[in-house]
Each structure stands twice: as C-alpha cells, then as structure tokens.
Amino acid sequence: DLSLDLDRSSLSAKVQALGLPIEELWAAGRRALAPRLPSEDWVARMDQLKGRLTVSASIDGPWSAPNASVDPILLDSLTLGSEPMGSIRISGRRSAEGWEATEIRWEGGPGDLLANGRLTEDGQLELQGDLSSLDLSILNTLGFGLPPVQGRASVSFAARGPANEPLVDGSAVLQDFTAG
Q1: pLDDT top residue among 142 and 160
Q2: Model confidence over 27-47: pLDDT tens digits?
Q3: Per-residue DSSP letters for 98-156?
C-alpha cells in the first residue's frame, strides 16, 4: 500500500512480508553482506542459519526524513546448523531523533533476551536488557575462540554513549559453570 503527495513531497506506505525463508534472503545478499561480517567463521555460520522472516512496517512523512514503524520484525523457527535458536521479535520506530527499539525479545533459543534501546542520528546509543538462562555452550557453537564452556548465565546490562565505544555496565550470575 503506497500513496504519494507530490505537492507536499511526502509519502505513506505499509509493507508486509510474511514467512520469507532466511536462508534464501542470505543467499541473495551474501556477496554484498559477507565482507561486512567480522570473519569467514561468521560467514560460515550465516550459511547454516535457517528460519523465516516476517515484517510489518509503515512509513510516512516527508521524503527527506520519513518516520517508520515496525511491529514486528519476526525471525522464527531459527536454527543454526542443528542447534535450535528460537525466535526473535523486534518492534520499534524511526523518527527525526533516531531509531528506537521498543522491544527486542529472543525466546526459545539458548537463552531468553528482553531488551530495548535507542540510537540517535548522531551515533549515541542507549540500550538496556536482561538475558536469562543462557546455555553457555552456545559460545562454543558461535566460535568466540574461548575454551569449551558449560553452564548457564543470567546477565543484566546497560550500554550508553557513542555506539562505536559505549560504556557498558552489567551484572551476571553463573550456574554450574565449567571451562576447559
């Protein structure tokens, strides 16, 4: 659904995409996106990611600085190789001040995340959240170069400041932790 007001140089649009296969989206964008990932290991992991993407968004306002709202971006039935990764739901909006994620929720995977935050147009970040019951063996799967770890962690965090170097505060509780 799209409407344009040429006299006011504005637009209004509603967009929906339902159940798009993530692996096909990755395959279509791989050549452009892979060089932006931190390493070839990350590219290999993305090659193993499967699931579905559903998006519902609206855009309105002047062409030069439209407002946008997403409710939701939903990634579901996620797997990384044979590992179930649950679902991720993001709701938020963009305005002249920047981007705001009103809800970032990851459930049914190796842990549960609930977070929200904002990123201003001048690069200032404000993010807070809680990650609970994280199965630490996922760190082995993701390949952070750590010795093998086991156990569970719950983490509360807040990050503020420049997005490229934010100040991060947090606390963690580890259960049944072993390394090596």
Answers
A1: 160
A2: 999 999 999 998 888 899 999
A3: EEEEEEEEEESSSSEEEEEEEEETTSEEEEEEEEEEEETTHHHHHT-SPPPEEEEEEEE
- Check whether 112 has a pLDDT greater than 80: yes
Query: What does DSSP say about strands 98-107 and 2-5: parallel, antiparallel, or unpaired?
Result: unpaired
Rounded to an integer, what distance in angstroms lies between the CA atom of residue 76 and that of residue 108? 10
How far, in Å, CA of 19 to CA of 80, rounded? Answer: 18
Average pLDDT, the chain: 92
pLDDT confidence bin for 56, thresholds 50/70/90:
very high
SS3 169: strand
The answer to whether the CB of 172 falls within 8 A of the CB of 153 is yes
The distance in angstroms from the start CA to the end CA of the chain is 55
Tokens of 105: 């929720």
How many of the other CB atoms lie within 10 Å of CB of 131?
19
Query: Within 10 Å of residue 53's Cβ, how many Cβ atoms?
Result: 18
Q: Which residue has the tokens 């579905």?
A: 52
